[in-house]
Design a protein that fits this description.
Layout lengths: L5 H6 L18 E3 L5 H11 L2 E5 L5 H15 L3 H5 L8 E7 L4 E11 L2 H8 L8 H30 L8 H5 L6 E7 L3 H4 L8 E7 L5 E6 L5 E4 L5 E3 L7 E5 L1 H6 L9 E5 L5 E8 L6 E2 L17 E2 H9 L15
Parallel strand pairs: 1-2
Antiparallel strand pairs: 2-10, 3-4, 4-5, 5-12, 6-11, 7-10, 7-12, 8-9, 8-11, 13-14
Helix pairs in contact: 2-6, 3-6
The structure holds gibberellin A4.
Length: about 325
């Protein structure tokens, strides 16, 4: 029998589990950004999985390490200090509650605007105090570097798909008005709860979902937990790789490519022995941007699979949904 301490039982309300899945995905597509066939390799990966990893991405290890150290420092602060930056609504510090509609997970996080002055306005983040000032700087430096990767990635995708102009996608992300955000996640280990299900990873850290934006660029420490859903519906674990960046196709990219690229359903399992730290840039378009297939991509006679909507409308609808909902369903043509 597993005996839980009072502290652990209080936490049970936030515990969701899923069937253990031990399959390790050894087929993660790898795209080397220094190769001339990078665009074609991305197109193949996005059509099949909506997911791949990038090597030779050019983000300096020093910038990554500094942010990871700052993140560890922030999540290590006393709860009362972290709570001063919360609750996330949606920006700010969140603890076990995800979004605004009742989703929970074994996670704590900081959700930030990629434009720090926006955060300062909206959140009155106490980020100019003590070590949080360093955290904000580390975030800004990392985001600056990872945005460059995102711009290159979508430009190579445009090349691979024959989109004209080739900056049709990157322009959306480069725009001053781009509605992008950044999250730092900490999945603490939970040995007591893990004891309830000794078969391994099956506590939900972040439940299954697709990302609403155009693309997401994810980096994690060397701790497993990320799983993606393959086209046949099987969940597989992505081997961690702290020196590569993982790319998720988001719902908006699915629309912009009229379904040629699929947004990838993914989730994170927690409860392993080591804490998992991840940092994710979500590249989105401007609020007024029309979300419709790029004209140069449509074949003759091909019509959009989706009704007309703006990113602002999609975002509003996403924030009314639960994590696992199929959010594009409301926008598909009958
Ligand atoms: C998933 C992708 C990003 O992490 C995020 C998430 C957002 C949140 O955590 O506030 C959402 C989720 C995400 C999709 C549906 C809504 C909104 C939680 C939720 C239940 C920041 C985003 O943009 O959408």
């Amino acid at each position: 029998m597993v005996v839980l301490s009072q502290g652990a039982t209080n936490h049970l309300a936030f515990v969701k589990t899923c069937k253990p899945s031990s399959a390790i995905f050894d087929g993660v597509p790898v795209v080397d950004l220094s190769r001339t066939d990078a665009g074609a390799a991305m197109v193949r990966a996005c059509q099949e999985f909506g997911f791949f990893k990038v090597v030779n991405h050019g983000v300096s290890q020093e910038v990554v390490d500094r942010l990871e150290d700052e993140a560890i420092g922030f999540f290590g602060l006393p709860q009362s200090e972290k709570d001063k930056v919360g609750p996330a609504n949606p920006f700010g510090y969140g603890n076990k509650r995800i979004g605004l509609n009742g989703d929970v997970g074994w996670i704590e996080y900081l959700l930030l605007h990629t434009n720090s002055s926006e955060d300062d306005k909206r959140l009155s983040l106490p980020l100019s105090q003590g070590n949080q000032e360093f955290l904000r700087c580390a975030v800004d430096d990392y985001v600056r570097a990872v945005k460059e990767v995102a711009f290159r990635v979508v430009e190579l995708m445009a090349d691979g798909l024959g989109i004209e102009p080739r900056d049709a996608l990157s322009g959306m992300l480069r725009s001053e008005a781009s509605d992008s955000c950044f999250r730092l996640n900490h999945y603490p280990p939970c040995p007591e709860l893990q004891a309830l299900s000794p078969s391994g990873h099956n506590l939900i850290g972040f439940g299954e979902h697709t990302d609403p934006q155009i693309i997401s660029v994810l980096r994690s420490n060397n701790t497993s937990g990320l799983q993606i859903c393959l086209p046949d519906g099987a969940w597989v674990s992505v081997p961690p790789d702290h020196s590569s960046l993982f790319i998720n196709v988001g719902d908006s990219m699915q629309v912009l490519t009229n379904g040629r690229f699929r947004s990838v359903k993914h989730r994170v399992l927690a409860g392993h022995g080591k804490p998992r730290i991840s940092m994710i840039y979500f590249g989105g378009p401007a609020l007024e941007e029309k979300m419709a297939p790029l004209p140069s991509l449509l074949a003759e006679g091909e019509s959009s699979l989706y009704k007309e909507f703006t990113w602002s409308e999609y975002k509003r609808s996403a924030y009314k949904s639960r994590l696992a909902d199929y959010r594009l369903g409301l926008f598909e043509k009958p």
